[in-house]
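testing teh design pipeline on a random one, pls ignore if ur not involved
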């Protein structure tokens, strides 16, 4: 263990290292023959054998297009695809099965709301309230909607430690606010936002709420009915599932009233040469051949996550995050972005004045086998607000270990020695520390 960590570890909070055996890719070597330490989970996670087997099982035994085929394989595929919808419904506790729409991911889900609900409901002067910490996929679709409708975008500012400024939020919430669209967890700062409070206050002001749950559903239990959230978006590939599938949850009455966004097969009730009538939910928002196999894979991923337990996963990640935060905060010249560990999910982003994030990522990968992300993480406005162009992000999941965090710390110290040899490595302790 690194001697930079100053606080003791609660080993009872950690998940068994043996579950790594479920993830074949984790025994790969990367860089200069280093065992892989995969700390890029906020970008995309790895898949357990159970998910890989579910995917190949479909291709080997049951695959066909869904819904319309009157033959055995189409019926089997349809049943598996609709079972996946049930699994998602149970995971987020949606009241109705048809409130779960399969999309290609969080980005597609948010775009669906921005195009469909936004174009139908927003008028010039109406306001959409976002935040400074949003991912580009919860900024750009609203910028596009604002261009089309004349709606005005406002942004909740951040506190100095990278949390939403809730007093400013309340000031910005007016009778002009039609929608509040914020992330549950920042993919750059790690901040866990008080979404229940945001939803309650937005509703009291007459606004709807969309939650970008790309970084929360994979790591924290989310109950859409308890939250009373109007729209929720997340992605399969960030929760042990395949890429190419995601979910848009919406309240039935809202989805029912919204026009379809993409047109084509499956989303219709009847088509004539010059007109169509849309299908009922959820088909109305699932035009074309849906992500059949990815959705079935996502279903297997949900089974896996629930067998481990989201609360246990959260405890594990919190412990690793605290350990990493604690050690990184001892390193001279390193700036950790975002709040103290008690306000953050399982990731730590940091920046050095004199060393570019790409240098970190390269050396960490090549010499230490540690995969991290370097860049703006699709949060350019947030980085601009922080006064930096890029940062390095280590993000954890259920299969990461203390030993991997140690390698991260060792790697960061090595980069610091390499690129800033004159610098001290540790912060000087104040006399009373
Ligand atoms: N929102 C957040 C907070 C994210 O972290 C991401 C993925 N980095 C997205 C949205 C977009 O997800 P996807 O690329 O799967 O559409």
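output:
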């Amino acid at each position: 263990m690194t001697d930079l960590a100053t606080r003791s570890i609660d080993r009872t909070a950690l998940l068994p290292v043996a579950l790594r055996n479920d993830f074949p890719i984790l025994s790969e070597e990367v860089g200069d023959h280093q065992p892989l330490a995969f700390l890029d989970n906020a970008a995309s996670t790895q898949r357990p054998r159970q998910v890989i087997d579910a995917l190949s099982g479909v291709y080997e035994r049951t695959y066909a297009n869904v819904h319309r085929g009157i033959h055995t394989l189409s019926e089997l595929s349809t049943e598996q695809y609709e079972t996946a919808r049930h699994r998602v419904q149970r995971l987020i506790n949606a009241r109705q099965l048809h409130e779960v729409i399969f999309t290609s991911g969080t980005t597609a889900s948010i775009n669906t709301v921005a195009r469909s609900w936004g174009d139908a409901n927003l008028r010039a002067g109406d306001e959409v309230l976002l935040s400074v910490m949003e991912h580009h996929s919860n900024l750009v679709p609203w910028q596009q909607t604002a261009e089309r409708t004349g709606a005005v975008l406002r942004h909740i500012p951040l506190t100095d430690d990278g949390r939403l400024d809730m007093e400013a939020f309340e000031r910005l919430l007016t009778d002009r606010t039609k929608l509040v669209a914020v992330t549950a967890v920042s993919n750059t700062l790690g901040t866990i936002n008080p979404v229940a409070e945001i939803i309650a206050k937005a509703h009291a002001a007459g606004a709807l709420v969309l939650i970008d749950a790309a970084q929360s559903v994979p790591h924290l239990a989310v109950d859409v009915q308890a939250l009373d959230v109007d729209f929720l978006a997340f992605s399969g590939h960030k929760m042990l599932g395949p890429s190419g599938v995601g979910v848009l949850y919406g309240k039935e009455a809202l989805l029912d009233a919204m026009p379809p966004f993409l047109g084509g097969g499956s989303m219709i009730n009847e088509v004539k040469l010059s007109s169509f009538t849309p299908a009922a939910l959820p088909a109305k928002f699932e035009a074309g051949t849906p992500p059949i196999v990815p959705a079935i894979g996502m279903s297997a991923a949900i089974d896996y996550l629930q067998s481990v337990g989201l609360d246990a996963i959260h405890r594990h990640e919190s412990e690793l995050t605290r350990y990493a935060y604690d050690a990184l905060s001892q390193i001279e010249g390193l700036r950790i972005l975002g709040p103290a560990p008690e306000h953050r999910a399982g990731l730590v982003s940091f920046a050095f004045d004199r060393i570019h994030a790409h240098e970190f990522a390269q050396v960490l990968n090549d010499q230490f086998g540690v995969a991290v992300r370097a860049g703006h993480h699709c949060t350019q406005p947030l980085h601009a607000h922080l006064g930096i162009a890029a940062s390095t992000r280590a993000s954890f999941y259920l299969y990461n270990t203390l030993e991997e965090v140690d390698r991260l710390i060792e790697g960061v110290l090595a980069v610091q020695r390499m690129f800033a040899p004159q610098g001290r490595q540790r912060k000087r302790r104040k006399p009373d520390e």
